[in-house]
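Thread: Modeling a multi-component assembly for a lab meeting

Hi all, long-time lurker, first post. My supervisor asked me to bring a structural picture of a complex we are working on to next week's group meeting, and I have zero experience with this. I have the sequence lines for every component (556 residues in total). Could someone generate the structure of the whole assembly? Inputs are pasted exactly as I received them:
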Amino acid sequence: MKQVQQQYLSKTASKLKPSGIRKFFDLASQMDNVISLGVGEPDFVTPWNVCEAGYASLESGYTAYTANAGLLELREEISSYLSEQFSLSYDAESQIILTVGASQAIDLAFRSIIDPGDEVIIVEPGFVAYAPAVTLAGGTPVSLETKAEDEFKLTRETLEKAITKRTKAILLCFPSNPTGATMSEEELQSVTDVIEKHDLLVLSDEIYAELTYDQTHYSIARLDGMKDRTILISGFSKAFAMTGWRLGYVTGPEEIIAAMLKIHQYTMMCAPTIAQHGALEALRNGRDDLEKMKKSYRQRRNYLVKAFNHIGLSCHMPGGAFYAFPSIQSTGMTSDEFAEKLLEEERVAVVPGHVFGAGGEGYIRCSYATSIESLQEAVKRIGAFVERHKAE
Amino acid sequence: MNEKEVEILEILEENARVPMEVLADMVDLSVEKVEKIIKSLEEKDIILSYSSVINWDKTAGKDGVAAMIDVKVTPKREVGFDEIAERIYRFPEVKAVYLMSGAFDLSVQIEGKTMKEVAFFVSNKLSTLDSVLSTTTHFLLKKYKHDGVIFEPEQKDKRIVVSP
Ligand SMILES: Cc1ncc(COP(=O)(O)O)c(C=O)c1O
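Re: Modeling a multi-component assembly
Sure thing. I ran the full set together rather than chain by chain. Output:
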């Protein structure tokens, strides 16, 4: 029967590789007493006032579709939020679409810009969904490998090298999942003329923009000439601890947003209504909670990164997100071996770096969105593991 | 008070047992520096004590009753409410005393072994004080949350163990 079923699959679907994360999910879910540093979402539950706003919206009977682009009130709130927090100016009516997570925004963006044969540069190590999303849209993902010695930032040289005649766009994500890398205004500035020279479109996934710990986030869309060639993707999942609400948004040049809206209206209708009501409350009254969570991430980052360096896993200080990305090269293991053995022997789940694409091998991603007590225990276990395997 | 001091206080208020080396890393200072800051905060009576929140209901043999008493008093010239507040908080059975706005003046929290003991305190010790005009006693039936700590927390992390 399986054979028969398979014959119906599209070539694209059957060729799509399952995410390397899946294997560790399956392994870790079967074990007890696992400390997981493998979780890509906040450990906080959504602030209570936001949950209340969700309840209240149901009580008031807001159970129908919203406008395709989302509640206008919320788009207006996003527009002023982007302006206040990041000095970006986007029109609520024509330049913002609420999506089902940043995930859908990524999919929409690629589907509206890619023709067969188009290449999209993906800055890696990067979020696992980008390359498959390009492939599904009929394009060709091209890896651009960032390096630890550059603190996993994009540089002019690496960018120039990745560009071909067919390159249409580049996807950036700073602060980065999995490396936590951030880019300053000057660092972004240093690549814009290359982007302009080759007339590339920029997809900037800034979902971690609120979670920067050493300097405030600077969006590439702020730089001269960039706004008209940047699609900015963000959402409520990380900053407001709302992953399960499934709400993100995309902003950008009007014509591109209009094309995305066409696809969105046929394939999604609109983002969840209840989540949109929650998000309104998050933007209006969520700042204190956001700052509290951010402070707590920063403290845990400081602890974990120092602890890794201390036990012999060299780790740069990530400027944002909630991931540390230590090197495991001193152990001589591949990241897959390391992660699998660590899980079996010490019951600590981490994500092997290779699943994040080029440049990820030799590293592991460890989320510090976990209680400080669990982090201490994890460090103890990883420390013992590294010590034992060094001796071999 | 600088930012680091506030940060240290916030961390300790949440968990006074965090190891010194961990705390130092969290706030990005040396252990010596953090120890010095904490010592000075203690000396200035900013950090007053390190206590635990305990759910005594889960232990056997330590039953007791607690009550919150609304107390109306006549404030005294010069010292206002401070003098009477002090006379009340000196009783060891009194766990907390707050000056309140609204219908009454002092909120007094008291713990005793039995209801009788609490009643005795109110009628014989508290009400007999000169400036006390009236008292209203509310017995505490169940603690859900105390000092920011939930008493029957749902421990389980609801996230899936590994995600992108
Ligand atoms: C870089 C990055 N982009 C997008 C997403 C997806 O977020 P959302 O929950 O908004 O779909 C994630 C989630 O892990 C992420 O890390």
